[in-house]
Write a structure and sequence with these properties.
alpha+beta, 175 residues, five-stranded antiparallel sheet, 5 strands
């Protein structure tokens, strides 16, 4: 009953003995099975900090100051975190005292997806995003702090783009 093509990997993501992806909650030591039906919504929550970070950078100029942007960002983090922990995870099947044995890696997951076109498109999109974040910072005349945050976001986006390029090149060798 092993599931193929589930493109979910990263920290606190493991495989159970049936090949299902399991999110390990470090706070209560339980595992939560991420079904194919819940995968897309889970990904949104899994990358919640990155998403909020990028939105903060892109909207930073609209909040008038770094303090206002930081407050809005922290408020968003608290709300999303509370929803994720106390509502979303409760909807997933729980494995009490889950034993973390089989770790998944993002690169391995991308390679195993065998979605060459999607992988190269994501690589291009992430690299383009990394450039656009910096161009936005320059165009908005961000101060040093916002520019530094933009640079961090840009570097992370570039890293994910390179990861997708590596996965694409390894897919070509396997085929």
């Amino acid at each position: 009953m092993k599931r193929e093509n589930l493109n979910l990997a990263g920290s606190n993501i493991y495989l159970d003995r049936y090949g299902d992806r399991v999110y390990y909650n470090v706070f209560n030591k339980n595992g939560y099975i991420v079904s194919q039906q819940a995968e897309q919504k889970f990904k949104l929550f899994y990358y919640r900090y990155s998403t909020i970070f990028i939105v903060m950078i892109l909207l930073g100029d609209y909040f008038n100051s770094f303090q206002n942007t930081l407050l809005v960002g922290l408020g968003a983090v608290v709300l999303v975190e509370l929803y994720f922990r106390f509502i979303f995870l409760k909807k997933l099947k729980v494995i009490k005292n889950f034993k973390r044995e089989r770790k998944t890696s993002k690169l391995e997951s991308l390679i195993n997806s065998k979605e060459k076109e999607k992988t190269i498109m994501k690589a291009c999109a992430y690299i383009l995003l990394s450039v656009l974040i910096i161009l936005n910072a320059i165009q908005q005349n961000f101060d040093v702090l916002f520019f530094a945050l933009s640079l961090v976001g840009s570097l992370y986006s570039f890293y994910i783009g390179i990861l997708n390029i590596i996965a694409f090149s390894k897919m070509k060798k396997i085929s």
